[in-house]
Structure formats: C-alpha cells, structure tokens
Hints:
Layout: E1 10-19, E2 22-32, E3 37-41, H1 48-56, E4 62-68, E5 71-72, H2 77-82, E6 85-88, H3 100-107, H4 111-117, H5 134-146, E7 152-156, H6 164-181, E8 184-188, H7 192-198, E9 201-206, E10 209-215, H8 223-231
Adenosine-5'-triphosphate binds at residues 19, 24, 42, 44-50, 190.
Amino acid sequence: MTETTExxxxxxxxxxxxxxxxxVIHDVTLSVGHGEIVGLLGRNGAGKTTTxxxxxxxxxxxxxxxxxxxxxxxxxxxxxxRGQVGIVLEGRxxxxxxxxANNLExxxxxxxxxxxxFPELRxxxxxxxxxxxxxxxxxxxxxxxxxxxxAVMLIDELSFxxxxxxxxxxxxxxxxxxxxxxxxxxxxxxxxxxAASVADxxxxxxxxxxxxxxPGAELAEREDEIERIYLGGLDDAA
Length: 238
Ligand SMILES: Nc1ncnc2c1ncn2[C@@H]1O[C@H](COP(=O)(O)OP(=O)(O)OP(=O)(O)O)[C@@H](O)[C@H]1O
C-alpha cells in the first residue's frame, strides 16, 4: 500500500493559510505517497477544509510549499485542478441536470476506465446525475476526478450525509481506486471509524495544527488519546 520511493505524490511543508489577514492553519507539514490514503481528522473548525483549500490553491494568501510529484505548485486552483491535483469537495461535485455520461464527458474522463473502476455507474449512464442516490453521486464525483489521472486527490467528507453501509462501500471503492491507479489521497473525514477502515495513516488536527500522526490501524485503540486532542489545546501537541 504505502510506497517507499523518495518522490511523494504530495508534499506540503510549512503551510500557513487562512482568510483575509487571519491565519487558520499554521505550519502544516504532511506528505502522501502514491497509492496511499492519508486521513485528516479533527473536530469541527479544526482547519481540515482550509488545509485542502490551501493545498488546492483556493486561498490567496498562503505561506509554505506544496509539491506534487516533486514539482512545486504555484498559482490559483483552476490551474492546479486541471493538472496533477484532483479535488472532490463536500457535498456532490457533479452537475445534477446532466446525465452521468455527460458528467464524465465534461470532466474529460475516459468512460471505459470510469466504468471499470465504478461498475455501479454503468446502468445509470443515461440518467440525470441529480436523480442518483447520494452514494452514487459521490462515486460519480470520484470517477470524474480520478479518470483525469491526477497524482493526488484531495477529498472533503466523502461520507457526508450518507448511510453507514453506503459509506463503507464507497470507502472500499476508494481503497480499490488508490491501489489500482496509485493516486495519493488526502481524505478529510469526521468519522474516526470510517478513517480507520480506509486510511493507511491519519493526521489529527486541532486549532490549525497537526497534533498527531498514527497508522490508521491504531485509531480504534487510541481513541481516548484522539478525543483528548480533539478537546484539548496546545498541551496535546504531538
Ligand atoms: N471563508 C471563510 N472566511 C473566514 N473564516 C473561515 C472561512 N471558512 C472557514 N473559516 C474559519 O476557519 C476555521 C477552520 O474552518 P475549516 O472549515 O477549515 O474547519 P474544518 O476542520 O474543516 O471543520 P468542519 O469539520 O466543521 O468542516 C473555522 O474557525 C472557520 O470558521
């Protein structure tokens, strides 16, 4: 699963960013390997989405460095998302009034490849995306992104608003995608048990700082520690 080569799909160093003059995340350093899924956990307002936004280039004022496949990214989001960075935002990143087929086409995704990775979408190709279930819409959002072959995908709350069984299927599919395509995934997730089921590694964030890092497999047994980080402040810094 985790690749041991030197070049990481995503490498972030000393990223400080926020809104206007206010910094919300501070000196964030993290990396994601090819084929690796890294979970980013933390309570509401911890700075998880802001971290994704800053990496993606949505925030005007950032300090620090973002590299994808060892190439430093500069410039705004629309340039980054066309290239090596794929973004799936909270909610449904699809066009509800277009068909599934058109959604794939508009994204520039290879339809055969999309259907190979997400066979559940095949019988739905002619349907408008807006009538798909929440889980199917998320699958379509993933397909639209992964089939543009980014080196790294930034995913915000894939499980948002979905039933547990649907989430589990979706996350298993994400695991399959990471292993098959070798895309690196930085996944913001609220549910600790979901992150434990899919992430190779997890980072725990609070008050805009990365406070701890651990293998996904250790999440369940370290739940008390994680809760203390969620609730605590600087004393819990890793
Ligand atoms: N557009 C904005 N303008 C000003 N402040 C913002 C903006 N978006 C987020 N914030 C603030 O930045 C902080 C971090 O928010 P962020 O959305 O990154 O947290 P989060 O960890 O993703 O939370 P959640 O799990 O609730 O989505 C919060 O205090 C939030 O109020």
